[in-house]
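## retry 2 of 3
previous attempt timed out at serialization; input unchanged, resubmitting
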Amino acid sequence: MIEHDKSHHRFVLRCGKYEAALMYAVKGDILDFYHIYTPDPFRGGDVSTSILKHAFDYARDNGYHVVPSCPYIAETFLERFPEYKDLVADGEFPFAEKV
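## retry succeeded, writing output
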């Protein structure tokens, strides 16, 4: 089950003793998805995809736009799942401040 840890600005999926997470920053109605971490034993599977879909769905459901500053998200995930491209912030937005 994916948990949204709002106080630490991350979405987390615990896999036994491992933890995968998407870290984000927020500024106004912009979420900057700046880092996704998946433990080695779970890379290449669906762990990061599950977390990212959950996070993009959260953004859609709550009126946010997304800045995909993590290269994996911008170059790989959004190419595989173009249905989320409408959430990507248009124009020159400053990246949200990292907390």
